[in-house]
Amino acid sequence: MRPAILNPLFAPATVLPGVGARTASAYERLAGPLVVHLLWHLPSGLIDRRHAPKVAEAEAGTTATLTVRVDRHQPSPDRRRPAKVYCSDETGTLTLVFFHAKGDWLRQRLPEGSVRVVSGRVEHYGSEIQMAHPDHIAPLDQRESVQTVEPIYPLTAGVTLKPMTRAVRAALARAPVLAEWIEPRLVEARHWQTWSQALTAAHAPESPADLEADTPARSRLAYDELLANQMALALVRRSARGGRGRSIAGDGRLRRALEATLPFRLTESQQTAAAEIAEDLAKERRMLRLLQGDVGSGKTVVALLAMLVAVEAGAQAALMVPTELLANQHAETLGTLLADSGVSLALLTGREKGRARERTLAALAAGEVDILVGTHALFQKGVDFKDLALAVVDEQHRFGVHQRMLLARKGPAADLLVMTATPIPRSLVLTAYGDMDVSRIEGRLPGRAAVATRAMPLDRLEEVVAAVRRALAAGAKVYWVCPLVEESEVVDLAAATDRHATLAEAFGARVALIHGQMKGLEKDAAMAAFAGDGADILVATTVVEVGVDVAAATIMIVEHAERFGLAQLHQLRGRVGRGAKPGTCLLLYAAPLGETARSRLNILRETDDGFRIAEEDLRLRGAGELLGTRQSGMPAFHLADLAVHEELLAVARDDVRLVLERDPELESERGRALRTLLYLFERDMAVRYLRSG
Question: Which of 21, 76, 432, 609 is the most buried (most CB within 10 A)?
Answer without folding.
Answer: 432
